[in-house]
Write a structure and sequence with these properties.
- With about 260 residues, the chain is α+β, with helices and mostly antiparallel strands.
- The chain folds into two domains: about 35-85, 3-methyladenine DNA Glycosylase II, Chain A, domain 3 (Orthogonal Bundle); about 95-260, 2-Layer Sandwich (Alpha-Beta Plaits), CATH 3.30.70.20.
- It has helices at about 1-25, 35-40, 55-65, 75-85, 120-125, 145, 170-175, 205-210, 220-225, 250-255; strands spanning about 95-100, 155, 160, 180-185, 195, 230, 235, 260.
- A two-stranded antiparallel ribbon has the order 1-4.
- The radius of gyration is 27 Å and the shape is elongated.
Length: about 260
Amino acid sequence: MILTATLTMVGLGAFFAIVLAIASQKLKVTEDPKIEELSEALPRLNCGACGFPSCHEFAKAVVEGKDIDTTCRVGGESAAEAISKITGVRKTAAKKIAVVFCGAREGDKTKKAVYKGVATCRSSNIISTGAMNCAYGCLGFGDCMRACPFGAIVMEDGLPKIDPEKCVACGKCVSACPRGIIELLPFDTDNLVVAACRSRDPGSVVRKNCRVGCIACKICERLSGGVFYVEDNHSKLKTERMEEKVDWDQIIKKCPTKTIVKIK
């Protein structure tokens, strides 16, 4: 009796094993070998800068011809060459860099209290705007620096400083900033000049809150011929016009609050 039961179980096990083996072969999906080849040629950091959770998923999307940005920012030119060689797809995006739209160091901004909570930007932003009078500027606790996987950000006097050589525009710092004052801008130009302020307060209020805040005087707008323009009480940049012939040094010099700064 026991022997019969044992043989029956062994027989059933063998039967189902054979069925599963056949099904595995029948249902197996053959992956394009170019996907693995391209995946191996990428940095394999799985940083997510391309918008995919892994280099393999990015390689799969590129090989399958998905409508995506095919730039591997971490891999740079070597990755671009590998993508072109393996798939024939050319690089589709210019180099970018993270830019901090606040130029206020510790001595430039006024405070309404002393913040004693958890030393992160996200936490301090929840509690009375981090004790700062300006509700738009950098909080200075370095969430962006800690989020950067490439060591491209250091904190200097309460303000993040971004190294253009190390920054790969992965966007981690953009997501980490609770104030939304970090953006990725094209960096293939000889002149990357920005207005380092995002305050929407009137000029009279900005003057009380920060020594280097934008007061919406429109001097930069006039001198740049509209490359800079004032909206929401602060100066903005038309990045598509950055290559136009503009006297950037004159604009920087004439800005009364020294809000206009050169990134490169």
